[in-house]
Amino acid sequence: MPPITLDHLVVPVDDVEAAGAAWSAAGHDVRAGGRHQHVPTQNVLIPVADGTYIELLGPVRATWPPRLRRLWQASRWDRVARRRSAVAARFLRLLAAPDTPADACLSVRPLTATVDAARAAGLEVSDPIPMERVRPDGQRPAWALAVPSSPDLPFAIEDRTSRDLRVPAISPTHAGLTLVRTRRLFLAVRDRADARRRFAAWLSREPIGTPDPLTFVLDDGCEVRLVDSGFDGPVGLVDAEYDARRGTRRTSWRLASQPRNA
After folding, report:
1. Nearest 10 degrees: CA dihedral of 82, 86, 87, 89?
2. Cα–Cα dist 54/101, whole Å
3. What are the boundaries of each domain within the chain?
4. Peptide bond before 148: cis, by omega within 30 degrees of 0?
5. What is the mean pLDDT of the chain?
6. What are the b/e assignments for 133-150, b being 16+ CB within 10 Å?
7. Does CATH number 2.60.40 belong to domain 178-254?
8. CATH number for the domain whose boundaries are 4-166
């Protein structure tokens, strides 16, 4: 079974520069990301000490979010999504859907084996889709994504170039807040019995402990907990550890464009 670990968390924002400035003002080490190829989005990144990161993802044009939300409210989103790749439909949905909190990405290698196993278990998952981003320095990190059709299942990534090109390290001169690690992800699901089957197939493992809460443990120790809700959705809360230069502390918080001070 290929190891599956948390790669990064995605926070949808309307304005990447403004969101990055807000996180920086709160004391986080915000790093330039770049513009994606094949998808009209761009990002800035907040590195985490354990090698993961938070991605603030926004459109390349400020006019996009209002237009996407109008399509969503007019119930025309399915028609729009069918004309887009699985990756574009997933990311643009984050920007279109009201109150969409965030998304999660898993690191998997080899990605093709995970996709094949998930399909054999009855899941609908895209083929690995090649992606790249143009960094401000001109370098082009490349990777592939596999996207499940269910929006509550995290998508998966496999690097095609060195991971160091895509994932920034915390600056050695950073003296503010440092996110040490993400301990738990809380994902909203409508039907826990069905979600248990789908998550077990996608993560290639069974949940641990009692059925309440329904918890899957990734190979890096991060817990994925399924929370009853009236919808199937991505990450709503994280249970994280911060180092605020005053000692490590735990905090639970909702991922948003306006960060919570630890």
Report:
1. 30
2. 13
3. 4-166, 178-254
4. no
5. 82
6. bebeeeeebebbbbbbeb
7. yes
8. 3.10.180.10
